[in-house]
Fold this protein.
Amino acid sequence: MKFCVFGLGAIGGFVAARLALAGQPVSALARGATLAAVREHGLRLFSQGVEQSVRIEVSDSPAALAGADVVVLAVKTTALPAVARTIAPMLGPDTVVLSAMNGVPWWFFHGLGERWRDTRLAATDPDGALVSAIAPERVLGCVVHMAASCPQPGVVRHAFGDRFIVGEPGGASTPRLAAVAAALGAAGLQVEVDPRIELAVWLKLWGNMTMNPLSAVTGVTMDRILDDPQLYRFVCTAMTEAAAVGEHFGLPITMTPDERNVVTRKLGAVKTSMLQDVEAGRPIELDALVGSVAEMARLAGVAVPSIDALLGLARVFAQGRGLYAGA
């Protein structure tokens, strides 16, 4: 099975390196300093105190990377408009797109039943370009639970975790799902096949949608947010609102915010991906992580004052720093 990774950031670079180290054919789309670094030094992975460098095929031309069985889409959601414009040459009739990103993805509603199947969020796909470029029928969902960073182009520093949850939108058990899961497992990843991949996406978002923007605005790690009594109550209130939204879409959450925050606290002094983006001067994924939930709340007729406040606060913060270009 031939893989091509679209986006050699922390997640994409980690997946590409692990696949290559396991002997899987893998290529990657990269540009600028990342393209130059990987061509010169290989893709470098630091994990568990070990540095490994692998040579993979890299190009800045989507057409040069045609022919993959699986395209791993591992970009920031802020890059998705560019993906919609450029990915077509990489997609053959049977190419699978493994969607490994944060937030509510463009294919999310396809497997939620007839009522929601054609729902499109302005926060996720404002002009419909994504669903036109990458039809939900060719997508496999993927939820990634790991911590990694890119301290410099072409370098991935893996902190902990390698859990990858994969599934077909709508929950079907298919040969392509089994083949992709087997290939990722052979690369040493902890792979789980989930018949409710949409719920797995929602559960991850349920924690990320508060921690990410609050850390971006305050500039502190997750443990300090949870240590503050007022912020802790705000987090729990927003999570309760989001859980009510999920219920309307058939996405029940059985744990309480307190129980989820116990898990978050165990991670310690972690900088969220959004805080890392702020510090690096990169656009933040606010629409995918928070705007999408607020929009879903309006569709469901659920009041979410805390989520709306968080969205507005983070949006104004990011706009003032030139890190938000959304609606």
Q: What stands out?
A: The first helix runs from residue 10 to 21.
